[in-house]
Amino acid sequence: MCGILGLWQPNDANSSVERRLNQSLKVLNHRGPDDRGIWLASDNKVGFGHVRLSIIDTSTLAHQPMVDTSSRYILVFNGEIYNYKELYKKYLLNERAVNSHSDTSVLMHLLIFLGKDALSQLNGMFSFAFYDTQTKKVLLARDRFGEKPLYWLGNKNVFAFSSELSALKVLLYDHPWILDDNAIASYHMLGSIPAPQTIYKDVFALEPGQWIERGGDGSHSYGEYWSLSSFVPQKDALSNNAVQKHSKDLLQKAVQSRLVSDVPVGVFLSGGIDSNAILATAVHMDRAPDIALCVDFPESKYSEYPVAKKAADHCEIGRAHV
User: Fold this and answer.
1) Burial 215-244 (b: 16+ CB within 10 A, else e)
2) Which of 12, 21, 68, 189 is the most exposed place for a label (fewest CB within 10 A)?
3) What is the pLDDT of residue 173?
């Protein structure tokens, strides 16, 4: 888990962008204790920040914000691109500037060469901002199912984004943060606030599978690069046996891709079918995690630990009782 944020203030006479970024990164520090960085434009009007939890390529070569060799493009990225090795071989094999061990580097160069068309190629959990210093355009995008959060606020005087609303509030402390009554009503009815709404007026959550681009002239454009309806086969297209096989194949591919890491891998385990299926699949593939973790509660009626313990013992996995 990493944290990203950015700020564009074209009318900032006090050059406060860097100070605001530094203050906001402190709020995000819990998301990325391994590294921290800031990139600031030469005019001090645009800046990006990043805190890092190192999972893939733990070296300094994967430091963010990442700047390409021409210094034209800037990337801040939270998440993981599971198929980055395949994308490197398909599109970037002959590009010497690409660090093939870093999904961040592969993502940056894929965006350089393919633009927004790169989004449909990505398999992962992510939110990112990609900035072109020549065109003054910044592209924000969020993964297919919205696993990684991204909040933004934009008008003619400012454009800002962050992984958390709390950091965004620090970044724009002088913005009128007004609660949205409709969002509060949604929370009480649904138990959550669906994107693009947030608890605040004029502050939005980027929706899953979508992108937004901010132009240098202050304009915004939006788009959807993926939807569930385009992915799921037609209702009568597969038999029951074919559905079972297809589901098993998808689960194996999903588990295998998520085991790609340069640090030890664990699994969150509960009494549910989903986490047990993930653990069993990893063990079946001879890719057993190092440890299984279970979050428990003092109230026995809410505790799933006994079932989680049975699953871990059955798979011969070390476990921790949190």
Assistant:
1) eeeeeeeeeebeeeeeeeeeeeeeeeeeee
2) 189
3) 93
Whether residue 13 is predicted with pLDDT greater than 80 in this model: the reply is: no
Q: φ, ψ for residue 132 (rounded to 5)?
A: -105, 115
315 is catalytic: no
pLDDT confidence of residue 255: 85
Domain spanning 3-229: CATH 3.60.20.10? yes
User: What's the whole-number average pLDDT of the chain?
Assistant: 89
Collapsed DSSP state (helix, strand, coil) of residue 170 = helix
Helix axes 240-258, 273-284, angle to 10 degrees: 70
Q: What are the residue boundaries of the structural domains of the chain, listed by start?
A: 3-229, 233-321
Q: How far is CA 253 from CA 81, 244, 260, in A?
A: 14, 14, 12
pTM score of the predicted model: 0.87
Q: Is a pLDDT exceeding 80 seen at residue 232?
A: no
The shares of helix, strand and coil residues in the chain, as percent rounded to the nearest 5, are: 35, 25, 40
Question: Choosing from 1, 2, 114, 155, which is the catalytic residue?
Answer: 2
Tell me the percentage of the chain whose pLDDT exceeds 70. 95
Extended strands (E) in 13-96: 35-40, 46-52, 66-67, 73-81
E strand map for the chain: 3-8, 35-40, 46-52, 66-67, 73-81, 124-132, 137-142, 151-155, 158-162, 204-205, 210-214, 220-224, 266-268, 291-294, 319-321
